[in-house]
Design brief:
Largest sheet: 7 strands, mixed
Distance between the termini: 41 Å
Number of domains: 2
CATH superfamily of the largest domain: Thiamin diphosphate (ThDP)-binding fold, Pyr/PP domains
Order of helices and strands: HHEHEHEHHEHEHEEEHEEHEHEHH
Shape: globular
Strand content: 15-25%
CATH architecture of the largest domain: 3-Layer(aba) Sandwich
Strand order of the largest sheet: 2-1-3-4-6-5-10
Length: 322
């Protein structure tokens, strides 16, 4: 059997989001969708067909869109506000801060095509600052599911949570990693693989790359722990501290700047609770260039093989050999 037939099936997490939203819409008449002329890219076509009176398309007016979402929530509805992550966060940050987080509005913000998923459209469309911008806001859980199963579970949880949520979804296909009966728990990491040599932590599109890196390391007799840290805020402090105590070193990777994102959130815990060698992989504080998401992740040292090499260097540091 060839490598292509052995390759795992890849899933667009937007499909899981759309299917879950449509089911929630059928179960709850309060569920509405708001978008910025992004019915197609947000995969809201099915929702529009089923509930034409419950889809509000404000056009290319993201700041207004967030305000409309807040108004709908204040009126007792349950709005899912969907837009490209780069515009939902960057262009609307003041409204997200004041109308959503400060007001503790029951609005679900859904950042579509996050990270470098719009790769060929270049730096204006990369969303590699959104963790940093959103995780500093009180009242706002920040979540980046690793696969379609976790996406559906996170959307279900968000619908039951009384307060704002930021869901970060990519359009880049990823394999399913979690069991089909997975129940999303905010602020809780998922142990995907255990080990005692080093801990690899990621979320979103990077999690499956960490699993592959751990498999490469296992082939060399190095057992790495892999954690899926879908919730950037609140961070799972217990899992991070346990990882340091059990493995002595932490390597993170994210489709985001190395400043202010998942790695920074974990480093804050490590410094305060359990100092240990650590390395953060991501976009190194620059505007990422044009190119496909897969190419850019590899270019910034986040291919599975490169992650494995970074892990070995970190292990050497831990052992005093680096």
């Amino acid at each position: 059997m060839n490598a292509i037939s052995n390759a795992p099936k890849l899933h667009d997490c937007r499909d899981a989001f759309a299917a879950t939203l449509e089911r929630l819409g059928a179960e709850n008449g309060r569920v509405v969708a708001v978008c910025n002329d992004s019915v197609g890219s947000s995969k809201l076509g099915g929702f529009k067909s089923q509930f034409p009176d419950r889809l509000i398309n404000v056009g290319i007016a993201e700041q207004n869109m967030v305000g409309v979402g807040a108004g709908l929530a204040n009126g007792g509805l349950l709005p899912f506000v969907c837009a490209a992550a780069c515009f939902l966060t960057g262009r609307s940050l003041e409204q997200v801060k004041a109308d959503i987080a400060y007001s503790n509005a029951n609005v679900k913000l859904v950042g579509i095509s996050s990270g470098m998923a719009y790769g060929e459209l270049g730096p204006t469309h990369h969303s590699i600052e959104d963790f940093a911008w959103t995780r500093v806001l009180p009242n706002l859980p920040v979540i980046a599911p690793c696969d379609s199963i976790e996406t559906a579970a996170a959307v279900e949880w968000a619908a039951t949570f009384d307060g704002p949520v930021f869901l970060r979804l990519s359009r880049v296909g990823v394999p399913d990693l979690l069991p089909k009966d997975h129940v999303f728990q905010p602020g809780k990491a998922d142990l995907l693989r255990d080990g005692d040599a080093v801990t690899l932590i990621a979320n979103g599109t990077l999690t499956h790359r960490m699993v592959k890196a751990a498999e490469i390391l296992a082939g060399e007799g190095i057992e790495a722990r892999v954690l899926n840290m879908a919730t950037v805020r609140p961070i799972d402090v217990e899992a991070v501290v346990a990882a340091v105590k059990d493995t002595g070193a932490i390597l993170t990777a994210e489709e985001h700047s190395t400043y202010g994102g998942l790695g920074s959130a974990i480093a804050e815990v490590v410094v305060a609770e359990a100092p240990a060698p650590m390395k953060i992989l991501g976009v190194p504080g620059i505007f990422a260039p044009t190119g496909s998401a897969e190419f850019l992740l590899d270019e910034f040292g986040m291919s599975p093989a490169a992650v494995a090499e970074a892990a070995k260097a970190l292990i050497a540091r831990k052992s005093g050999r680096g």
